Amino acid sequence: MRYGTALREAVDSPRTTPLIGIYDMYSASIAAQHYNGFFVSGFGFAASHYGLPDIGFIAWPDMLAFVERLRPAFPDHHLLVDIDDGYVDPEVACHVVRRLERAGASGVILEDQQRPRRCGHADGKVILPLEDYLKKLDLVLSSRQDLLVVARTDATEETEILRRAAALAETGADVVLVDGVRSLEWIRKVRSVIGDKPLLFNQIAGGKSPSLSLTELTELGVDVAIYSTPCLFAAHRAIDSALAELKMADGRLPDTRMSGAVGVESSTRLLEQNIDRRQHRRHRVSA
């Protein structure tokens, strides 16, 4: 399976392609009921795997191990993986890209931040000199075979945003992302300077960018939309509410037959689908 090619075909479709941010196998299992593309979000992974904010704690072997678990369970889903700055060193970035591609990743996002890095929608970001980032990006591009590569800038100064977006569009990267874009006007400006290069837009609840529908994004010329944290934040709210209700009920669990709440049977049925997808894929390959 050429996962990069499959994702490129989705990006080339007339409408904006949504990729849903997942943070563990269970959230991916639920998201797979609704969407056929995942974004392996650094924000979500840092929160779920380490219990830490997205400020550079992720170790690449942990991210690789997560993708290695995801791909067999979801053999037909797009997997776009956030690799931050490539884990600092260009040679490490190239090694990680090769390993992720062998593990079945569809694509990666490589940013131009320098350490200490920040979430793309946070304040205090510091970026690499453009020439240094372009060298790293070029090495990553030469390391991949079919993998889709998103070139991301975290520039915040207006002139620098457009300068970097235009420069990224001239590279061999498949898609350009300007993270933390603050208005529709700036989406249009970025779209105008990158020519025909596909454009990615990052949506995160409470972030700096406007909340837009897929229809609106398509009209703006956006080719891909990543939703970094809908599963993580929904789980946060739902867990908090469920435990508050449990406390109010003096520790008595709800009757799932009466309340429609998730119970062991519905959860098991969901997870059994991951086994079914593995077996179905195996049978297709061997046939």
Can you summarize this structure?
By secondary structure, this protein is an alpha/beta fold. The chain is built from 12 helices and 8 strands.
Report on the structure:
The protein is globular. The chain starts with a helix and ends with a helix. It is of the alpha/beta class and 287 residues long. The chain has an 8-stranded parallel beta barrel, surrounded by 7 helices. It has helices at residues 3-11, 25-31, 42-50, 60-73, 90-103, 130-143, 158-169, 184-193, 214-219, 230-248, 256-259, 264-286; strands spanning 17-22, 37-40, 78-82, 107-111, 148-153, 175-178, 199-203, 224-227.
Give the N-to-C terminal Cα separation.
14 Å
- Strand tally is 8
Number of helices: 12
Please give the order of strands in the largest beta sheet: 1-2-3-4-5-6-7-8
- Give the % helix: 40-55%
* H and E order: HEHEHHEHEHEHEHEHEHHH
Compute the average pLDDT.
91
Shape: globular
> What is the alpha-carbon Rg in Å?
20 Å
> Based on helices, strands and strand pairing, what is the structural class?
alpha/beta
Low-confidence stretches: none
Percentage beta strand:
5-15%
Main β-sheet, in a few words?
Answer: 8 strands, parallel, barrel
